[in-house]
Every structure is written in structure tokens, then in C-alpha cells.
Amino acid sequence: GITLAAGAFITEYAVFILSALVACLIALFFARKSIFKWWESFQLKVPVLSDMVLAFSISNFCRTFGSLLKMKAGVVEAFVLSKEVVENKFIRSRLAEAGKTISAGNNIGTALENTGVFPESFIAVMKAAEEKGDIEKVLLDMADFHQQKAVAISQKIPGILDIYFILFFGVIIGFSIIAVFSTLMSLYGRL
User: Fold this and answer.
1) pTM above the 0.85 mark?
2) Whose CA, among 79, 88, 158, 173, lies 20 to 30 Å from 106?
3) Which residues contact 83 (CB under 8 A, 6 or more apart)?
């Protein structure tokens, strides 16, 4: 059956399989920076994960930015320092671009909108806060709101993962049962 054929294949081509695995590991080692860069942007495309990563990023950024502005730091300097607390490098690179447009004279809301990362509701609140002149307080309020949102999402993830693990292991067990029965049937057919 399938199991016997797979065992024979692995036995016959073990050297080639081992060489291919070593080559793949070496390739992964040299491509790790691009892989991490891909992973950082991929996180923002996975439905539940993207919401959590974005909420944590917004929370950290807003809390730092608001605190620095409250301590009378300059807007550009506070923005540049605040982007460094964002762990996702993809979002951080977008914030770096926004920082350049702010230092060129654009307002914060428009600069954040041009990143293409932040939700429209966040952008609208930031623009309104800028017009009102109450940006420090709004940034700190947004930090609290998004931190609560991120914590709520992170508490839902284990339940979602349970479903996927059950499906994954169900498929593995199903294929194992099929492999065992196909081997038994082929042995029974030889008798």
C-alpha cells in the first residue's frame, strides 16, 4: 500500500531527501530577513490576527505619542520616537513614511491616512482631534480603547485555534486510518 511504498521511497532516496532538507534550511537561513518581512505584512492580512496586531500597534503608538506631546515634545520628534515602540516592522515602516510627510508640513491625520494601514475610524478621530487642538488627550484615550480591543481579541484566539487544531488532527487521523486500512486490504488481497 501507500505506507510500504513511502517507506521504500524514503529508504532508497534517503541521501537525496536529507540533502534537500539541508539545502532548504540553508536557503531559509539566508532568506530569513525577507521571510520576516513577508510575515510582518502577512499578519495584517489574516482576519483575527490582523485586528489584534493593529490594535496593539495603535495602542503602543498612541500611548507613547500622546505622552510625549503631553510632556511638550515637538510633534515631529514625538512622532519619530513613537513609531519605534511599534513591534510590527511593516507598520513601523509606514509610520516612518508618515513621519517624513509630517516633517514636511502635513498634518498628522492626513499622514496616517496615507499609510494605508490604519482604520478609517481611527483616522477620522485623529483628524477631528487635530482640528479641535486636543490631540494629546485623544491619543491617550485611543491608546486605552485599542488596548482593550486587543486584549479582547487575544482572549478569543484560543477558542478559534481549538477549532482549527481539531480539524487538523481529524484530517491527520483520517489519513492515518486510510493508510492502515489500505495496507491491510492489500495484505488481505495477497492471501
Assistant:
1) no
2) 88
3) 61, 92, 95, 96, 99
